[in-house]
Automatic annotation (TrEMBL):
Signal peptide feature range: 1-20
Species of origin: Chryseobacterium camelliae
Keywords: Signal
Protein name from the UniProt record: Uncharacterized protein
Length: 284
């Protein structure tokens, strides 16, 4: 009876861990997709606006958010008034964007996005935790989900043929829009070439995570992979840490498993391949 209880406990423990990692993967993936949708709206929204607005000296900045499932990019003036609203369909085709160049005040929701965005921007200029590298810029992405206010800061390259991971940060806010925490998501900046001089076009990539609180792939990793997928054509991507291995593919499927389990699985696959190869050699 004692042995049966031990076995049942082990089965329950394994199922619990699997469900926990699945839940973690789903949460990270959803947040990464939200970041991606916001950044896509910003990428194309600013282009649409500049093509239709000549008084560029009036522009104070921009941010994007999801309004009832519709991605919107907001351009605001130096006097903190909305200059334009650009709404996008699911395909983010600039030709299908709805441009409204009507100067107005922020809505209450937009005011929250604007406030945390501006406070994050100021913090990046004064806090030494933020690093600034040549040929890159810090992109500030405010996210409000389930009444939780966050700002992600990603590093974007200003040169072609590279994808940048790392040098990214997360700021969390109180309900009163005051900064609560600031943390790094990666220990350094990782630059991967899309086309390598020696090997040609890359088909996938991998990098490691060493920060204790960010052992799994990050929402910023997911966002970056999705943003650059049309340029890279990568078939998948992997992050590895002491505790976890995360595997992502372009179909937005994300699997997270314990590093120990991943190693055992890999060893078994290699063992099976070796045994199969030996068996084929022995066949007449």
């Amino acid at each position: 009876m004692k042995n049966i209880l031990i076995i049942l406990s082990l089965i329950f423990f394994c199922l619990f861990n699997a469900q926990h990692l699945e839940k973690t993967a789903r949460k990270i993936n959803e947040e990464g997709i939200e970041l991606y949708r916001s950044e896509m709206a910003s990428w194309y929204g600013t282009d649409v606006f500049i093509a239709n607005y000549k008084a560029r000296e009036n522009i104070g900045g921009y941010f994007s958010y999801i309004d009832n499932k519709v991605p919107k990019c907001i351009l605001f003036s130096k006097e903190n008034k909305v200059l334009a609203t650009i709404a996008f369909p699911a395909n983010y085709n600039p030709k299908d964007a709805k441009l409204d160049i009507t100067e107005r005040d922020f809505t209450p929701v937009e005011k929250d996005y604007f406030t945390i965005r501006q406070k994050a921007l100021e913090r990046t200029k004064t806090d030494t935790i933020f690093k600034h590298y040549q040929n890159t810029s810090l992109n500030i992405v405010p996210i409000i989900r389930n009444n939780v206010k966050k700002v992600y800061v990603l590093t974007g390259p200003s040169i072609s043929n590279v994808v940048v991971f790392g040098n990214d940060y997360l700021l969390t806010f109180t309900n009163k829009n005051e900064i609560k925490t600031v943390e790094k998501l990666h220990n350094s900046m990782i630059v991967q070439n899309i086309n390598d001089e020696k090997t040609g076009k890359t088909v996938s990539g991998v990098h490691s995570h060493v920060i204790e609180n960010w052992q799994a792939i990050t929402p910023t990793d997911i966002c970056t992979l999705m943003l650059y997928q049309k340029f890279t054509g990568w078939e998948g991507y992997t992050t590895v840490s002491k505790k976890l291995v995360s595997i992502w593919n372009p179909n937005n499927n994300l699997v997270i498993m314990k590093t120990e389990d991943f190693k055992n699985m890999s060893e078994n696959i290699l063992k099976n391949k070796k045994e199969k190869s030996q068996q084929e050699k022995m066949e007449p």
